[in-house]
Sequence to fold (1112 residues):
Amino acid sequence: MRAWVLPCVLLGSVLVKWAMGLGSYSAGQGTPPLFGDYEAQRHWMEITVHLPVREWYTYDLQYWGLDYPPLTAYVSWLCGIVGSWFDPAWFALDRSRGIETPGSKVYMRATVLALDTLVYLPAVLLFTRVWHPHRSKRSQVRNVALITVLLQPALLLIDFGHFQYNSVMLGFTLLALNCFAKNRDLLGAFFFVLSLGFKQMALYYAPAIGSYLIGKCIYLGPKDGLQLFIRLAFVTSVTFLLLFLPWLPPFAPPRAILDPVSRIFPFDRGLFEDKVANFWCASNVVFKWRAWLERGALVKLSAGLTALGFLPAVVTLSDGTTPVLRLLPYALLTSSMAFFLFSFQVHEKTILLPLLPVTLLLSGAAPDSGPFAWCALVNNVAVFSMWPLLKKDGLGTQYLAAIVMWNRVIGYRPFRVREGMFVQYLSMVVYVTLLLLHVLEMLVPPPARYPDLFAALNVLASTPVFVLTWLWSIKCGAQALWALGGLGAGAGAGSRHKRTTTLSPVKEGEERVQATGLGFGVAGEVHQRRGSKGDARTT
Amino acid sequence: MSSPLRCRTHVQAGRRPEEILEEEPKGLDDIEPKNPSSWWHLDASASEWDIFILSTSLKLLLFPAYRSTDFEVHRNWLAITHSLPLSQWYYDTTSEWTLDYPPFFAYFEKLLSIPAAFIDRRIVDLNNLNYGAWSVVAYQRTTVIVAELVLAAVALKFVRGAVDPLMQRIVSASLVLHPGFLIVDHIHFQYNGFMFGILLWSIYMARQGDKLASGFLFAVLLNFKHIYMYLAPAYFVYLLRSFCMSPQGQLLPRNFLLLANIVLVVFVVSLGPFILMGQLPQLLSRLFPFTRGLNHAYWAPNAWALVTAADRVLLHIVKQTGVKLALNASGVASTSRGLVGDTVFAVLPNVKPIHTFLVTLLSQTVFLVKLSRVPTYKSFLGALTLCGYTSYMFGWHVHEKAILLVLVPLSLLAPESYAYFRTFTIASAAGVFSLFPLLFTPAEIFVEVLCSILWATLIFVPLNRRLYEFPRSLPSVIMDLLEKLYLAGFLLLQVLVMALPALEAWITGARQATGATKCIAGEFSCPEPDPAQITKSEASNLAFLPLMMTSVYCAVGLVWAFLRLSFIYLRQE
Fold:
């Protein structure tokens, strides 16, 4: 039976994802003239199939002009080609706008599922093998870790309910992390560029990943480090060049590259869109930023704050003494959460980026531990923060089902305070608030003066949790760094060879990290057992 | 599953049904109910809650799925029972979906219509035909989930106090997660889970030795849906022999009168009001419309499906070889109409309702004689299953959904021995597959196929591991091999069934593609694809071929499982 568990888990997750897609999609279903995100994705398939590459970023920009990097465009092209085999009407140029036939809907949903299964699923599977290797004996726990990541409600709801392809971007980033854990830094850099090339939002991770790699170069010393650095630079730039090749000389005039770039980084939009649970939108309730500052100043201010926000991640990773892979998830969280909270033009869906490291941490945390409580809380609050969007989409039942299912699967009991940790009290307060807000919204119509009252309350309830999570990730990073740094100093000089072992996830520093309660592990017993063997396992 | 000493802390961190099923009981506390008489004290363990919560979440996700006209049928019944007085329930013809279930189900609908009216008044509006707003969808789908709690509770009760709680746990999980219910109730839309819950409750009472309660519950069930009459002979013989008679065969008048009175009371409560109003003939004419054909539109995979298929093949041979044979003209016309309409044979002699009735009765008698000789609970289960099975095999105008009448009691027999389990496997595979044509939209087909594969893996694998027996003789080795081949054939069949329409769509698509390219080439006016042309090709002969293949292939398996089960049952000591 044991051999059957993994296939069943995978099959079950596919079933849940597909069932999620039976419902309606992005707010725009059946609402001309622009429809919604679904139509945007479909429209890109339509234009990439029918137009020459050079026109992809210039064709009728008013109607869902392509504004994601080239890999999205290439994937859209492939999906469009395959879809046209089934029915060319789904992607007929211009004439297919707003097409919502059952057949085309099933096909579009199937493309999300297929891409998710091709990229995200293997990435998560590898992750549970690479990052939790010490639990090979306990396949059951590893399967729980697997299902924790696979059924993460926020991603399910956005990709399979609302309709987007975030799991592809996240899957590439996760593949990069897996490669880093296996010391395949070049392959990792390649995958991360693919992630960036699919959606520019992966930039949120760039400070953490960049400083991890640079920190590793510094750590390896002038000779090896420089060699690695040059190789990394080469792989990264070649991958980027290949992705943007059709817009570069000699295939296009030099100015052509501006078409995609100006579409990918649109600074001519607002500070934030709709209601998003970040610093700008939340503080906007009392402080009308847009009235006080002009756009240029706001851009600079947000850039500065964002940089400040991810600075701790950069510092902890790149000081060159201990570029520890184990810190990477925390650094990714710090960095992406800083972007989410402070950067310019953030969507509510962007919370998916901080959620990836959060869920990875969760998958490795022991139930009832501090990290477990934090990560579960953030996940739930993140889903709640997208409630106004999901409500607009008509995904209320899916929202309920996804949350209930996931919380049950991970064995989360938010209303049981055991250790008296701060986060448990915080969770209680937050959950009671969220439930109250939901009940209020159901019973009381918003006053005519404030039609968006509940969306605003949602932002006010969610933002503090996100800010606290950001601070928590900084704290965890610093503590873990201290624990490992202390160990490194204790090991003394001349143990360079030994210290390189800290680059791989299961290493000697584990007991210390575990002792501070931040480890990437589940049960103390496993770690103690492993801790004694850890030294022998050098890379 | 290898070790019962599983680390609890890890198990807490998240369990899925497949693990839960194998979880070893921790001690006697887990098996013995603390208070077996209380129905409210269910003592569900964490793993049982897991199954319940996860499956319910999945059912929530199925809310927006395709729903058949049965959904509107039940909405209409909500409206009838809510807006009309009792006296008009069985007379109303505002909608074509008139009330044709017995009174208890009508009362049940009346009960459901009260909250419905609060949620959305338009749900219970008699003239608001084909109402499909989100409110009514969410409400009706929710009532199915809530009503199915009966099934979940009874399945749980079955585990407590079972001879082998581990096996029973798997069987109970199999019932709660049955893809048949998922397809027929939660997508197609019906209340089978609820009513099979009552049936299982009645069987559970029989297992506990409370035959009076068992008889009472079955009488109640009959007044919810009369299709359970298929099972009535087994109940009658069993209760008569084991409750109303002493083991020596003497009538126990007290018990007999008690049972008779209880059943009578149930029927009086149900039918009484209509008898008083003199509406019984009208009610019965609604319940038993004898105006339908031998086969349903899609042949339910029973014996008649094989006979019908044989007739088609024979006709083909006759036409090819030119043998002089008296052909039935209307039968020849019937074959060209595909699956629609009444079935009239072209070569073989025609079958009349009385024939099917006689065949059913005769074969049932064989099993009932055996039951009356050995009126034990286990024997009752076998006879009950076979009673339903016989009716399904030889009944007049059988619906494919009726296979649940066979599969549900058969599940309870599965852990008895490897032979029973093997029969259960074949019948379940063929029976569940035969339900697939109920759903024909691609999105839902994917759901049903995935669910069925998952269910089969989660149920068959652990049961097989526990019950497996080596085939001992050459015939049994060959049989074993053939059965495995047959089961593997379902994969091929599913691929074929999906490929045939896709192939057709491909041809249609290619035709349209040529039109589209012409359009891009710079023409100012694009010729619109002719809709008539597309519908014509879709309605071509290929359309009903997959249905016929499914029906015949499943019929082979179901007939074989029927013979197998009869053999095992009759040979049993």
User: Anything to note?
Assistant: The CA atoms of residues 278 and 341 of chain A lie 4 Å apart. Residues 486-539 of chain A have pLDDT under 50 and may be disordered.
